[in-house]
């Protein structure tokens, strides 16, 4: 290589400290380069050295300068990323408190309680000739009512949100009423106790239970047929059926309050008179409507209902 100094040159075989492959680059030339008289050859490539004199012309930046800038920039970015990561790792992490979920209320278990309410009977007296069973044509309707109250007990079993149970109750009642015709004849009705054994089925919404109920109903039926001069009484315990619905709410883990409506039908009752109206039989079909409120104590306070797995 002769003439003016060059900025790119072939280094010694094997490359030098700044060699990239077989080619090497050096910083922009700011010193005048002269060919030394006693040039040292590395193979066929002449060696140049600085004579110490400044050149009157600055050379342009070379690829080596760009490469250095890229290396410096990459090193800076890597250092910044490492510092940010170290800062993240060093930041304290606050513990997150686990959410505490209260167990769902369970309706399963035995219970006992008391109730009070009102009961209203719809009835009718129909007259028949005892010997033939033919209706005489006389029919008179009447309504009676009174207060009723007593005890109830039962057991529930809950699966998911469904509650099945069996309940029985016994009550004293003060139902009393009847009718009197213009001639002084009439019928009197009284009921001093009633009870039932029923199934219950409902849907629980946590502490609220919405249910339907139905089963066997029994009640005392006391009929009196009278004239201005005499009265004749008949008493029996009559069985029938009852259906109803209600809502119950647990205001503590063991205590609940309920509101319930029931309809009861006691079938047909027949009484053959031998004193007040001899030769005549009187038939009735007593039906009742009742509304009750009650308070119940649950013996079981299990944490949750049985969850069915399918």
TrEMBL record:
The keyword Glycoprotein does not apply. This is Porin family protein. It is found in: Cell outer membrane. InterPro entries: Beta-barrel_OMP, OM_autotransptr_brl_dom, OMP-like, OMP/PagP_B-barrel. Its main location: membrane. The lineage of its organism: Bacteria, Pseudomonadati, Pseudomonadota, Alphaproteobacteria, Hyphomicrobiales. One of its GO terms (cellular component) is cell outer membrane. Residues 75-299 form the Outer membrane protein beta-barrel domain. Belongs to the Omp25/RopB family. Keywords: Cell outer membrane, Membrane, Signal.
